[in-house]
Amino acid sequence: MGVILGVTGVIGSGKSTACRLLRDEFGFHWIEADALVHEFYRAGGRGYEKIRSHFGERFVSKTEVRRPILRRFVLGNHQKLWILNKIMHPLITDELNKKVDQLKREGKGDSSSDVCIEAFYFEPQDLGRSVDHVIRIEASDELIKSRLGERFGPAEELEKMILFQRKILRESAFEEIRNEGREELLREKLAQLVGRLRREH
Question: Is the pTM of this model over 0.85?
């Protein structure tokens, strides 16, 4: 297997843009942890049942977990966030490992094949074990707000989310890649990173 790269960063920082460039420009296979969470949060999914069991009926509808309500509930509450992470991280890690194994079985995971995994955080004892290296995409609050606009919800809730996520990521030692909003500059930085990682791997 080639390099397995974790890509993290606060909401709206450009994680998906970086992963798209890694896929389209450098041949990485792209796995989105959030897409796995969506599957787990559907009615009948393992995440759905665990959220209902631990947090209560008000956090689920008949079809899925009510993510905005759950997000507001854990935002700023480290104990609740810790519980949520303990519930979801093992499920996500297990599924990510299955995805990587599937790439190998399909013949897409030879020694020259690389994978990027997009996720908010790579806990060293969970998701962090699945990757060789982690980068943190960093962008200014102004760029994030202009990028997300009103799609996230109230501006004050977005600001709170950014502050909360930055606090968590500041405690990590992930390599930082600045995203100034210009894809060509981000592509150049990623090219340098990929070249270095492939030489070292």
Answer: yes
- Token representation of residue 61: 């509808």
pLDDT digits 0-9 by tens, 41-52: 999 999 999 999
Length of the chain, in residues: 201
CA of 200: how far to CAs of 12, 26, 31, 81, 166, in Å? 30, 16, 22, 35, 29
Cβ contacts of 27 within 8 Å, gap of 6 or more: 113, 114
Q: Collapse the DSSP code of 60 into the 3-class scheme (helix H, G, I; strand E, B; otherwise coil) and give the result.
A: strand
Beta carbons of 152 and 161 less than 8 angstroms apart: yes
The enclosing domain of 43 has a CATH number of 3.40.50.300
Longest dimension (CA), the chain: 51
d(CA 168, CA 170): 6
Tell me the two tokens of residue 137. Answer: 């995409």
Domain boundaries, position 46: 4-200
Task: Name the domain count of the chain.
Answer: 1
Cβ–Cβ < 8 Å for 42, 59 = no
pLDDT in tens, 20-38: 999 999 999 999 999 999 9
List 30's β-bridge partners, or say none.
Answer: 116
33: tokens are 């942890």
Q: Tell me: the pLDDT tens digits for 134-180?
A: 999 999 988 998 888 767 777 888 888 888 888 888 777 789 999 98
